[in-house]
Amino acid sequence: MFGYYFGLALRSLRRNVVLTALMILAIGVGIGASMTTLTIFRTMSGDPIPDRSAQLFAAQIDNYGPITLGSVKAFLTSDALPTNLTYMDAVALMRARAAPREAAMFGTTVAVTPSDPGKLPFQVPARATYTDFFPMFEVPFEFGAPWSAADDEAQAPVVVIARKLNDQLFGGADSVGRTVRIGTDDYRVAGVIDDWEPAPRFFDVGGGPNGFAEGEQVYVPFTRAVASHMGGNNMSCLKPPGSGKDALLHSECVWTEFWAWLPTPSAARAYRAFLTGYAASQRDSGRFNWPARVALRNVRQWLSYNHVVSGDVSMLVLVSFAFLAVCLLNAVGLMLAKFMARTTQVSVRRALGADARAIFAQCLVEAGTIGLAGGAVGLALTVLGLAVASGLFGDGAAVLTHLSAADVLIAIVLSVSTALVAGIYPTWRAARIQPAWQLKVQ
Fold first, then answer.
1. Which has more pLDDT, 69 or 24?
2. For residue 393, is it within any domain?
3. Which distant-in-sequence residues (6+ apart) come within 8 Å of 52 by Cβ?
């Protein structure tokens, strides 16, 4: 019977093209607006590394103290803890080796000089880190592998590059063992990362927006980056650190991130105790005179703590779904007008033996068909909306505006279900038509 009702629905929709187009457009516009914001929201609030989000932890240590005055408050979080560590603390934690895997890191920018003398140098985002970064964050490799722990110790001039940069410099060929000129030094390529775009980039959220910026193209050993005077992109200081590299490295400026892989709850508790003990030892040494405070947050907690999904985005989703509700009210009115205009046809079917349930089913299938067509229009508008959003956010946030298969399925289900809901009242009214009264009038 469904096929029969579907055929009737198509014939009915063709009888009044203008009214049909208005109903489809009403639903499509609502779906397009709501799915555009929902797609962005789902990407922003998703789990970037679901297999390990409960095992990866960001460490924080309070080396700022009770700051209450001045612009320094802009660098602090709601609990007055810096999001980053000082170089001294990061190196001390790395030397302690209290976690199975751990990596201090910072984001920077480097100049890459192509081997072709006809091409000009260009800048790319880079990350200084330790070799544990790659297995800890499950980074996939197209060619080669990470550098070794010995390279970390030796400040070796080795590099891991992203696939995009490998395509640009070496035409996509296996470049392991070849040389890349970064700044004024030559670096040996240890590996090439395959396409890898965790969204959001939880290890570099930078207070929110940076979590969706363009990923790094170059990865260098942390020790080599420091020795080569590569500066961190996110640095905050309570006071000027003084002149010279050593003054910065021994200052209270925070600019390094620290992540540890703690595979079990007991490992996390042990590391938290270790971190608390380390902060207490720094206080006892006279480095600061306030109570030692630390924090250890896993990936999901870290994203929430840094407000990666802003309240504005959540509000925009609510507004867009409110707009969808308005569109559905319009669709209800249009369907009611369409169904009630067919009272004579319905009365004849009832007089020939069709019961109210058959009429209800026929009209409901027609409403679902309208919803399916509205979903197609809504998907087209969603693609258009995401393209506009991509232009506003920039290429670095393209991952935010990607329409996945799950989003397509959500759009179709949402469109059909909302159309069915919108069609319940008009369908109920059509099924309650008394054929005797209508035929008597005719």
1. 24
2. yes
3. 136, 137, 138, 261, 299
Last residue of a domain, one of 256, 286, 305: 305
| Token pair 């030397």: residue | 95
Strand 179-182 with 141-144, pairing: unpaired
Provide the domain count of the chain: 2
Spell out the residues 6+ positions from residue 260 whose beta carbon is closer than 8 angstroms to its own: 56, 57, 59, 98, 99, 101, 102, 271
Measured distance CA(269)–CA(264) in Å, rounded:
9
Domain boundaries, position 350: 2-45+310-441
Q: Residue 437 above 50 pLDDT?
A: no
User: Which of 142, 330, 128, 315 minimizes the C-alpha distance to 233?
Assistant: 128
Tokens of 162: 């992203």
In order of 44, 135, 215, 441, the CA distances from 163 in angstroms are: 24, 17, 11, 75
Q: Is residue 110 part of a domain?
A: yes
pLDDT tens digits, one per residue of 28-70: 888 888 888 888 777 777 778 988 999 999 999 998 887 644 4
Mean pLDDT of 319-334: 80
C-alpha to C-alpha distances, 25 to 15, 132, 278, 321, 407, nearest whole angstrom:
17, 53, 62, 16, 20
pLDDT (tens digit per residue) in 262-277: 999 999 999 999 999 9
In a domain, 104, yes or no: yes
Spatial distance between the Cα atoms of 380 and 412, rounded to a whole number of angstroms: 12
Given a cut of 80, whether residue 362 has pLDDT beyond it is: no
- Where does 325-381 show beta strands of DSSP type E? none
Instruction: Tell me, yes or no, whether 246 and 384 share the same domain.
Output: no
Strand 254-261 and strand 56-61: pairing?
Answer: antiparallel
> What's the pLDDT tens digit per position in 379-407?
888 888 887 776 665 555 555 566 777 77
Each residue of 204-220: pLDDT tens digit?
876 444 556 678 999 99
Task: Identify the H or E element spanning 270.
Answer: helix 265-284
